Amino acid sequence: MFYIIILTFMTIQERIDELRAELHRHNYNYYVSNSPKISDQEFDFMMRELQDLEAAHPEYYDENSPTMRVGSDISKEFVQVDHKYPMLSLGNTYSAAEVADFYQRVKTSLNEDFEVCCELKFDGTSISLTYQNGKLVQAVTRGDGTHGDDVTENVKTIRSIPLVLNKGDYPDEFEIRGEILMPWAVFDELNKEREQREESLFANPRNAASGTLKLQNSSVVASRKLDAYLYYLLSENVPCDGHYENLIKAKSWGFKVFDQMRKAKTLDEIYEFINYWDVERKNLPVATDGIVLKVNSYRQQRNLGFTAKSPRWAIAYKFQAERECTRLNEVTFQVGRTGAVTPVANLDPVQLAGTVVKRASLHNADIIKSLDLHIGDMVYVEKGGEIIPKIVGVDKEARSMAGEEVNFITHCPECGSELVRYEGEAAYYCPNDSTCPPQIKEELSILSAVRL
Ligand SMILES: [Zn+2]
Is the pTM above the cut of 0.85? Predict the structure, then answer.
């Protein structure tokens, strides 16, 4: 009863404002701090009350209301937007020696003390967010680095991205860059659902995240449970000279930053960070593919400047993909719903990146040909971010004489029709969409879906 008495003393607008503030706060506690203070049910009740009030009182519309998180089913073409600051990509290195070269180049150019901020390189899709007076106003993809797609409505559905910032000393206007990710658990679940519906699978969480971000229907984006880490602050007036310090500030304003980043004063400290995370990253809920090293001081970053393609003050170190050698026993060919024929390598089971691998993708006929595969070959299997590992090479020295050469089939293994290859496509197709079993099965499920 107490609750109702309070309501009578509050105007509708005050109640809406209160709910919005509460929901922003609880959203932050849940998705950014990982410390929810109320139950999911209480959260849902407040959200529903707010949705009802907003529906009844459209005059209090707010484009940054927590209700925007659920998205809308209005299809939207993306508008291309120019980046205020170009979104360059980082130079890649693959060895400790190349990291040492980078360090030495920086040291020689600066000719003074410097620190290097070490962070994990998240394997998702890049995003640039613009905030004005503490409110998210625009979210743009990297695109070609000069301009990208305005995906603001979709980004608003990502719970770990604040729509309204906590109180703090943020600049009136700033950009913050980061990576949008699909957590492994969501990715596995999504692929399981797609498999059941016999749809094509996403190769890795990065593809799934970027595909999701480009969906036209933001309520589907909302259902995909994307996450985001933010890693660089840009503004005419950033609060600190240090990149690390700016990120700590950003964290206090409500952004999710990787808080195990570290400032290194020596090359050895950088190697220590790399070696630690090369192992430890396997326990993270999201995909990572390397380490990013940035000269910490913005003043020193400006002094170092850019090459045509990338900043001189930052570099990415990429982790080695895991690779094992095992025996190729057989190549089988699968016919998909669209008639596309996929070659699959069946292997002696081998332990790779924490799972037992028995099958690997061979992609298409050209790849089989370029590998010069024979049955019984010892092959190298690699697992990058992909769920399905791939064959990347053959140990020809270990080849036995008996093995038969692997050739792409000419006829459909399901119905016997002659396969076709369309102009400009890598895949072979079975053209018989009327009686080829895997192809009709799909049509049946489409028909039943239509009937529902
Ligand atoms: Zn067929």
Answer: no
